[in-house]
Specification:
Elements: H1 4-17, H2 24-34, H3 40-48, H4 50-60, H5 62-67, H6 79-107, H7 111-130, H8 145-155, H9 165-175, H10 180-206, H11 215-240, H12 246-262
Length: about 260
């Protein structure tokens, strides 16, 4: 497919950016162009290695995911109720993504569209962080079906590469009354079903693009993505206790300008 170091670089980029409000897809598209790794096979590779980042969240929040297997009387976000909340959050983007999958890959996977999405998402972060919001939900166990569905509707914005699934769900959660940290944690957990679906769907649709020798390349990107995501998620939660999301908005705007100038 490409030199081994391409898989490592893309794995690092994917893992570090997947759960931060900066858009992993956007960064992968830009990095792929810089590495001259583009085309249908590259696009599918970039989606498939997301599975490594997904499993990092499952490993970090294993107790929460294990709790979804049976109702815990001490945790409302568990069992069937927890699964129902995740279903509500995943439903809108799953439907829209399924209907618009071809259009998105054909028209929105370019540096220009990514730059615009980065800028629009940055504006949303500034707006939300500047609002005087009343925090009504401070833990995962306080999330309601209405809030879960609302976050799911905001998650549809993430179908635009460069906008960021993390940014859309965290900002959506905050606008709807969730605290910044719980909005981020729910964003991580809610990412798992929607990303599993998207990754599996794309790979099943395009697996014939890959030859037997490509599997090691995929595996390398997957493993690097897992390690980088583990580090990024733990660090992000620590930062949220000390900072707002404005520095990420500034970064997004700066990156958008660089993309428009040079790519």
């Amino acid at each position: 497919m490409a030199p081994w170091y391409v898989a490592i670089i893309l794995g690092i980029v994917e893992g570090l950016t997947e759960f931060l409000p900066v858009s992993s897809t956007g960064h992968l598209i830009i990095t792929g162009h810089l590495l001259d790794f583009t085309g249908p096979k590259a696009e599918t590779f970039e989606i498939v290695i997301q599975l490594g980042a997904i499993l990092a969240v499952v490993a970090l929040y294993w107790d929460r995911f294990l709790g979804l297997l049976a109702t815990d009387p001490e945790r409302k976000f568990s069992g069937v109720y927890g699964l129902w909340l995740l279903f509500l959050t995943s439903l809108p983007a799953s439907v829209v993504g399924l209907l618009a999958h071809g259009y998105i890959k054909e028209h929105l996977f370019s540096p220009g569209t990514v730059a615009v999405a980065l800028a629009v998402g940055a504006v949303l972060i500034f707006v939300v962080e500047g609002m005087n919001k009343r925090i009504e939900v401070e833990s995962l166990d306080e999330i309601t079906p209405k809030l879960a569905l609302g976050i799911g509707l905001f998650q549809c914005l993430a179908l635009w590469p460069g906008f960021s699934r993390s940014a859309s769900t965290i900002m959506g959660g905050m606008l709807l009354g969730a605290g910044r940290t719980v909005a981020a944690e729910y964003s991580f957990i809610a990412a798992v079903p929607i990303m599993f679906a998207a990754t599996g769907y794309d790979f099943l649709k395009n697996y014939e693009l890959f030859e037997h020798g490509d599997m090691l390349f995929l595996l390398l990107g997957f493993l690097v993505s897992f390690i980088a995501a583990w580090i990024a998620v733990k660090g992000f939660i620590i930062l949220l206790g000390r900072l707002t999301l404005r520095p990420f908005a500034v970064y997004r705007l700066g990156l958008a300008v660089l993309i428009l100038l040079f790519l």
